[in-house]
C-alpha cells in the first residue's frame, strides 16, 4: 500500500511537471491548472486504449522508413532506422533490459505525437544532419562553474552600473544615495578604487547572464553546487537550468523592499496583483528548493502588503503608475464626481498609520544592513519581523473579507457597514480567545476606532445639530430628501434605515415608519447581524435623538435658549472625542488601582461599620433589635454596590498599553464608553423636544381640545351645539345644512373658547343610502374637523382625528337618544285622553284601554331611559373620563416624541375598543344602535300624540327592546364572567338591574 | 560499483539523446524536459496513447487560452 502511494505520488508529481511544462501555468491554485490536472488524471486512469503492441510499433517504424524512402529522403530514412534501433537496444533509467514494452510505448508515444509524416518531411530535413551530431552541451564547464573565481566582474565602468541600478530601482533612493556619494568620493583612477568598488557596488544581478560575484570556496558556501552535482550523478534525466546567482544580502534587501511596497523586483515578480518568486534565483549556500520555500513564504506577505498598498492608493487617489483601465476598481473610477467615502478613507488612514510604523521598522533593518556592523541573515530578519508579519496577515484577512470580497456596484452604506461589522466581529472573535491574541485585538481595536470615526461624526452631527450630513450615503440611516421638515409625514417618512442582510448581501429598505418607532428590536432571526452591530443597542436612541434634534432645530425656539446653545457648542466635545477619552480613561484606570488595594480594603471596612449603624437605626425604627441582622444587611448592601461598581466601572485586571484592550471587554468598553454618551444626548434632545412641544407649542392644550370637542368633555359648549341640531330635528326641519351647522358650532365654541372657533369646522359627508335606513344613522353624515397646526399634527394626525370622529358620532347618537327621551312631555299623552274624555265619555272600556296604553308607554319610556342613561354613564364616566386621566398621566411621563405618539395611539385604540366600535364586537354595537333607534321611533310616536299609533306597535317596540336588552345582558355578562373586559362590568350590572325589574 | 553505476548513467544519458533526436525527426515538438517527463511517465506505466492525447489536448487548450488573452490585451 505504501509502495503504491509512493508510486502514485511520483506519478502525480510528474503529471504536474508535465502540465507546467506544456501549459506554462506555474500557479497550482490556478483554476485552469486544476482543471488540467483533473483532465490528466481522468485520462490516465480511465482510458479506453489497448496496451502497446510491439509489433504494431515495429510496423509503424518500418512504415515511416518506407515512406521516407518513397519520398527519396534517403539520409533521413537511414538515420531514422539507425536511431530507432539504437534506442531499442539502449537502457532506460528505471527499466531493466532492452526492447522492452516501455521502449515500445515511448516510441509509440512519439509516433502518436508526430502527426502526419508528410509534415515531418518538410520541417525536419535540416535537422537530420544535426541529429547525427553528439550533444554539445559543455558539462565540464557547467560543473566547473561554481568553482572558478571570476576576477573581472565589472567589465563596464561603475557609473553605468549605477545607471542600471537607478533604472531598475528608482524608488530606493536611500540606497542609491549612499552608493553614488561613495563612488564620487573614491577616485576611480587609483589602484585601490577597483577593489573598493568590488566590495561596495552591487553586481547587476538583475540582467541576464550576469557576471558572478566572488564568494568563499568553503563547503558551506557551495552547498548548491554540491547538491547539483549529487542530482546530476543520481538522476540521469536531471537537467541543469540556467540560474541567477544572488547573495543573501540582496535577498534580504529585496525582501525589505517588497514588504515596503516597491513593485519592481528581480527576485519577486508581480503578475496581475500576484507576487511570485522568480524560478531560477539561487544563492550559493542553499539548495534552490530551500530558498524557494522561504521566499514563497515571504511572497505571500509581499502580496498582502501589495494589495493593501494598492487599496490605500486607490482610496487616496494617488497612483504611482498609470494602471491599466481594466484593473482600476469601481470606486477609484468614480472618484472626482462623487463625494468622498469617509469610512473607507478612515480605514485607509488607519492602515496608513500602521504601514508608516512598519516601514520605519523596515528602514531600521535596512540601515543596519548597510552599516554592516553585524551579521544580518534572512531568517534573523524574518524572526524580527514575525510580529509585524502576523499583523499584516491579520490586516489582509480583514481587508479581504471587509473590502475586497464586496462585489462592485454595492452601495456605500452596505460597504461601510460590512467593513465595520467585519472589524467588529474580528475583534469579538479574538477577544474571546483572551491573552493569546492580545496583539491582534490591540491592532484591530485601533483600526476599528479609526474606521468608526466617520460614523460617530455623522451620528454626532445628527444628534447635536439635527443635520444628517452624509454626502457619500454611507450611514445606515439616510434622509429622504423629498419630505420637508414642516410636513406632517416628517416624523414617519423622513429617514430610511438600511439593514444589510448578511446572508444574501443585499440591502433591504425598512421604512422608518416601522423603524422609527421600534428601532432596534425588529428582529426576525435572519436580520440579527444586519445593521452595524455596534450601533444596534443604541440605534433607537440615535434615531429618536436625531429626529428630535432636527425637528427642534426647525421649531422656533426662544432666542435666549439658542444663543446659549451656540455658545456652549464651541466648548462642546464631539461624540468621537468623548468616546476616545472614555476609552483612554477606562484603559488607564486599572493601572493605579492595585496600589490602593490596601486602602480600599480599609475603606470597605469603614463603610461596613457605617452601613451597619445605619441599618441598625432603620431596624430600631421598626422595633427590631438584632445586631447580626444589621451586619448581614449592611454586608448585602455593600456587596451590591461593589458589584455595581465592578459592572459599570470596568474592573478588569491586566495592565496594558494605552491602545490595547482584551478579554471580554470590548462590548463592555462600548457599553461604558460609547453608549452612555449617546444615551445622555438622547435624553437631553428628546427632553428638550418634549419640553418645547408642551410649553411653546401647547401640545397638551391641543390634546385637551380634542377631548373637549370630540369626546364632549366641554359639556356645556357642545351641549349648545348638539341641542340646536336636535331641536331642529324635533321640529321636523331640515338640519343638514352646512352653514347652519357651522354657525351653531361657532356660536357654541366662540363663547367659551374663542381661540378654537377658527380651527373647528364641521362637514357633511354623503353616505351610502343602504346605511341610511335607520333614523339614528342620520347623524353619520357629520364630520367634525379640528385644524391641528404643525408640529402638533405629528401627534394628532388625521388618522387620529378619524378615530376621534367615530367616537364623537357615537356620543352624539347617544346624546340624541337621551335628549329625545328627556324632552318628552306627559302632556302630549294626557291631552289626548282629555280630548277623548271630552268627546265620548261614556265608553269606559275604551278609556281604560287608553290609560293602559299610556301607562305602557310610560313604562317603556322609563325602561328606555334607564338603558340610555346606563350606556351614557358608562361611556362618559367609566370609559372616557378614567381612560383620559390615565392618558394625561402617561403623557406627562413620555420621554420622547415617539413614545408620546404611541401613548396617544394606544389611548385612542383603547377608547375605540371600549366604546365597542371595533369590528369584532360590531354585533354588540348593532344591538345598541337598534335600541337607540327604537328610542328615536318611540319619541317620535310619543310626540305625534295619542292615536297616531296602534296598540300593536307598542307591543312590537316592547318586544324589540326586550330582545335587544336580553341579548346585550347575556353577551356582556358572558364577557364579564370571562374576566376579559373588566371595564364592562358596570355597564353589565346596570343593564342587568334594568332587566330584572322588567 | 560506482564506475558501473556511472557507466549506466552515461548509457542512459545517451539513450535520452537518441530519443531526443527521434523526437526531433518526428517533429513532436517535445523538448528535453518534457521528453524526460514523458519517459518517466511511460516507465510508470501510463498508456502512451492516453499520454499523447493528454499532451495534444493540453497544447490545444493553452494555445486557445493564450490567443484569448492576446485578444483581450
TrEMBL record, chain A:
GO biological process, one term: cytoplasmic microtubule organization
Ranges in coiled-coil conformation: none
Membrane-spanning ranges: 163-186
GO CC terms, sorted: centrosome; gamma-tubulin complex; microtubule; spindle pole
Keyword Hydrolase: no
Annotated localization: Cytoplasm, Cytoskeleton, Microtubule organizing center, Centrosome
Domain Gamma tubulin complex component C-terminal: start-end pairs: 699-991
Name of the protein this chain belongs to: Gamma-tubulin complex component
Chain's gene name: TUBGCP5
TrEMBL record, chain B:
One cellular component term from this protein's GO annotations in UniProt: spindle
Main location: cytoplasm
Keywords for the protein's UniProt record, in alphabetical order: Cytoplasm, Cytoskeleton
Keyword Translocase: no
Signal peptide feature range: none
GO biological process: gamma-tubulin complex localization; microtubule nucleation by interphase microtubule organizing center; mitotic spindle assembly
Subcellular location field: Cytoplasm, Cytoskeleton, Microtubule organizing center
Superkingdom of the organism of origin: Eukaryota
Annotated transmembrane regions: none
Keyword Cytoplasm set for record: yes
Family under the similarity heading: Belongs to the MOZART1 family.
Protein name, per record: Mitotic spindle organizing protein 1
Organism: Myripristis murdjan (pinecone soldierfish)
Gene of this entry: MZT1
Amino acid at each position: 500500500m505504501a509502495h503504491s502511494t509512493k508510486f502514485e505520488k511520483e506519478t502525480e508529481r510528474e503529471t504536474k511537471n508535465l502540465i507546467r511544462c506544456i501549459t506554462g501555468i506555474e500557479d497550482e491554485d490556478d483554476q485552469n491548472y486544476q482543471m488540467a490536472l483533473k483532465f490528466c488524471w481522468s485520462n490516465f486512469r480511465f482510458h479506453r486504449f489497448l496496451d502497446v503492441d510491439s509489433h504494431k510499433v515495429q510496423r509503424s517504424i518500418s512504415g515511416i522508413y518506407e515512406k521516407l524512402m518513397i519520398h527519396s529522403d534517403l539520409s533521413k530514412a537511414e538515420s531514422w532506422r539507425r536511431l530507432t534501433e539504437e534506442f531499442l537496444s539502449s537502457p532506460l533509467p528505471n527499466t531493466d533490459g532492452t526492447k522492452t514494452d516501455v521502449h515500445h510505448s515511448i516510441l509509440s508515444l512519439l509516433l502518436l505525437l508526430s502527426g502526419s509524416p508528410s509534415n515531418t518531411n518538410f520541417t525536419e530535413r535540416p535537422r537530420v544532419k544535426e541529429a547525427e551530431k553528439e550533444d554539445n552541451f559543455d558539462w565540464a564547464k557547467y560543473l566547473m562553474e561554481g568553482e572558478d573565481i571570476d576576477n573581472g566582474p565589472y567589465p563596464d565602468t561603475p557609473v553605468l552600473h549605477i545607471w542600471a541600478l537607478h533604472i531598475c530601482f528608482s524608488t530606493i533612493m536611500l540606497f542609491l544615495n549612499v552608493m553614488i556619494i561613495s563612488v564620487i568620493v573614491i577616485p576611480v583612477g587609483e589602484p585601490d578604487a577597483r577593489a573598493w568598488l568590488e566590495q561596495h557596488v552591487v553586481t547587476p544581478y538583475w540582467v541576464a547572464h550576469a557576471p558572478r560575484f566572488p564568494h568563499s570556496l568553503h563547503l558551506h558556501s557551495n552547498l548548491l553546487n554540491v547538491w547539483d552535482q549529487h542530482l546530476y550523478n543520481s538522476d540521469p534525466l536531471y537537467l541543469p537550468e540556467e540560474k541567477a546567482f544572488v547573495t543573501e544580502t540582496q535577498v534580504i534587501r529585496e525582501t525589505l523592499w517588497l514588504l515596503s511596497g516597491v513593485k519592481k523586483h528581480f527576485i519577486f515578480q508581480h503578475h496581475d496583483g500576484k507576487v511570485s518568486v522568480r524560478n531560477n534565483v539561487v544563492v550559493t549556500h542553499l539548495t534552490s528548493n530551500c530558498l524557494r520555500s522561504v521566499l514563497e513564504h515571504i511572497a505571500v506577505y509581499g502580496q498582502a502588503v501589495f494589495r493593501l498598498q494598492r487599496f490605500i492608493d486607490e482610496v487616496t487617489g494617488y497612483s504611482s503608475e498609470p494602471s491599466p483601465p481594466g484593473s482600476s476598481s469601481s470606486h477609484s473610477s468614480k472618484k472626482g464626481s462623487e463625494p468622498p467615502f469617509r469610512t473607507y478613507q478612515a480605514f485607509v488612514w488607519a492602515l496608513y498609520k500602521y504601514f508608516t510604523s512598519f516601514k520605519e521598522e523596515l528602514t531600521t533593518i535596512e540601515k543596519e544592513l548597510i552599516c554592516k556592523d553585524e551579521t544580518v541573515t534572512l531568517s534573523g530578519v524574518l524572526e524580527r519581523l514575525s510580529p509585524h508579519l502576523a499583523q499584516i496577515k491579520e490586516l489582509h484577512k480583514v481587508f479581504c473579507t471587509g473590502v475586497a470580497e464586496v462585489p462592485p456596484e454595492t452601495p456605500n452604506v452596505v460597504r461601510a457597514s460590512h467593513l465595520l461589522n467585519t472589524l467588529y466581529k474580528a475583534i469579538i472573535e479574538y477577544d474571546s480567545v483572551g491573552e493569546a491574541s492580545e496583539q491582534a485585538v490591540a491592532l484591530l481595536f485601533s483600526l476599528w476606532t479609526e474606521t468608526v470615526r466617520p460614523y460617530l461624526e455623522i451620528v454626532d452631527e445628527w444628534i447635536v445639530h439635527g443635520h444628517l450630513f452624509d454626502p457619500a450615503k454611507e450611514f445606515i440611516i439616510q434622509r429622504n430628501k423629498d419630505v420637508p421638515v414642516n410636513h406632517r409625514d416628517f416624523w414617519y417618512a423622513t429617514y430610511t434605515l438600511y439593514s444589510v442582510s448578511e446572508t444574501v448581501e443585499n440591502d433591504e429598505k425598512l421604512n422608518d415608519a416601522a423603524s422609527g418607532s421600534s428601532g432596534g428590536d425588529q428582529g426576525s432571526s435572519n436580520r440579527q447581524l444586519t445593521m452595524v452591530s455596534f450601533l444596534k443597542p443604541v440605534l433607537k436612541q440615535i434615531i429618536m435623538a436625531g429626529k428630535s434634534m432636527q425637528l427642534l432645530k426647525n421649531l422656533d425656539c426662544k432666542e435666549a435658549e439658542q444663543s446659549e446653545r451656540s455658545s456652549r457648542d464651541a466648548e462642546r466635545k464631539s461624540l468621537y472625542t468623548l468616546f476616545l477619552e472614555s476609552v483612554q480613561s477606562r484603559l488607564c484606570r486599572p493601572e493605579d488601582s492595585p496600589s490602593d488595594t490596601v486602602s480600599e480594603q480599609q475603606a470597605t471596612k469603614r463603610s461596613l461599620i457605617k452601613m451597619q449603624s445605619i441599618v441598625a437605626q432603620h431596624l430600631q425604627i421598626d422595633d427590631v433589635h438584632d445586631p447580626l441582622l444589621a451586619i448581614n444587611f449592611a454586608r448585602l448592601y455593600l456587596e451590591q454596590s461593589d458589584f455595581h461598581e465592578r459592572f459599570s466601572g470596568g474592573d478588569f485586571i491586566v495592565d496594558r498599553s494605552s491602545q490595547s484592550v482584551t478579554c471580554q471587554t470590548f462590548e463592555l468598553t462600548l457599553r461604558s464608553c460609547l453608549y452612555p454618551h449617546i444615551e445622555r444626548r438622547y435624553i437631553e434632545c428628546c427632553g428638550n423636544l418634549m419640553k418645547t412641544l408642551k410649553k411653546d407649542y401647547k401640545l397638551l392644550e391641543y390634546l385637551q381640545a380634542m377631548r373637549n370637542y370630540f369626546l364632549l368633555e366641554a359639556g356645556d359648549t357642545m351641549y349648545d351645539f348638539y341641542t340646536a341640531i336636535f331641536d331642529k330635528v324635533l321640529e321636523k326641519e331640515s338640519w343638514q345644512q352646512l352653514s347652519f351647522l357651522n354657525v351653531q358650532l361657532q356660536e357654541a365654541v366662540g363663547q367659551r373658547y374663542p381661540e378654537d372657533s377658527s380651527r373647528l369646522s364641521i362637514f357633511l359627508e354623503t353616505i351610502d343610502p343602504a346605511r341610511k335606513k335607520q333614523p339614528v344613522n342620520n347623524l353619520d353624515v357629520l364630520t367634525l374637523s379640528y385644524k391641528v397646526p404643525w408640529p402638533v399634527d405629528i401627534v394628532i394626525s388625521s388618522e387620529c382625528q378619524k378615530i376621534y370622529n367615530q367616537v364623537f358620532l357615537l356620543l352624539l347618537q347617544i346624546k340624541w337618544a337621551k335628549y329625545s327621551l328627556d324632552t318628552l312631555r306627559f302632556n302630549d299623552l294626557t291631552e289626548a285622553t282629555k280630548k277623548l274624555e271630552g268627546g265620548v265619555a261614556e265608553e269606559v272600556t275604551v278609556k281604560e284601554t287608553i290609560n293602559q296604553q299610556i301607562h305602557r308607554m310610560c313604562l317603556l319610556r322609563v325602561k328606555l331611559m334607564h338603558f340610555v342613561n346606563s350606556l351614557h354613564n358608562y361611556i362618559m364616566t367609566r370609559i372616557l373620563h378614567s381612560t383620559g386621566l390615565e392618558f394625561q398621566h402617561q403623557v406627562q411621563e413620555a420621554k420622547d416624541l415617539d413614545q408620546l405618539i404611541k401613548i396617544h395611539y394606544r389611548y385612542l385604540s383603547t377608547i375605540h375598543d371600549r366604546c365597542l366600535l371595533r369590528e369584532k364586537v360590531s354585533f354588540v354595537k348593532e344591538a345598541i344602535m337598534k335600541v337607540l333607534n327604537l328610542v328615536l321611533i318611540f319619541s317620535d310616536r310619543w310626540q305625534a300624540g295619542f292615536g297616531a299609533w296602534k296598540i300593536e306597535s307598542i307591543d312590537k317596540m316592547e318586544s324589540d327592546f326586550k330582545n335587544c336588552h336580553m341579548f346585550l345582558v347575556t353577551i356582556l355578562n358572558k364577557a364579564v364572567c370571562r374576566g376579559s373586559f373588566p371595564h364592562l362590568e358596570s355597564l353589565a350590572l346596570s343593564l342587568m338591574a334594568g332587566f330584572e325589574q322588567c | 560499483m560506482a564506475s558501473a553505476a556511472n557507466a549506466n548513467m552515461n548509457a542512459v544519458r545517451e539513450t535520452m539523446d537518441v530519443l531526443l533526436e527521434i523526437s526531433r525527426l518526428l517533429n513532436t515538438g517535445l523538448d528535453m524536459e518534457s521528453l524526460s517527463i514523458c519517459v518517466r511517465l511511460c516507465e510508470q506505466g501510463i498508456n502512451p496513447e492516453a499520454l499523447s492525447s493528454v499532451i495534444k489536448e493540453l497544447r490545444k487548450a493553452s494555445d486557445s487560452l493564450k490567443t484569448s488573452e492576446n485578444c483581450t490585451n
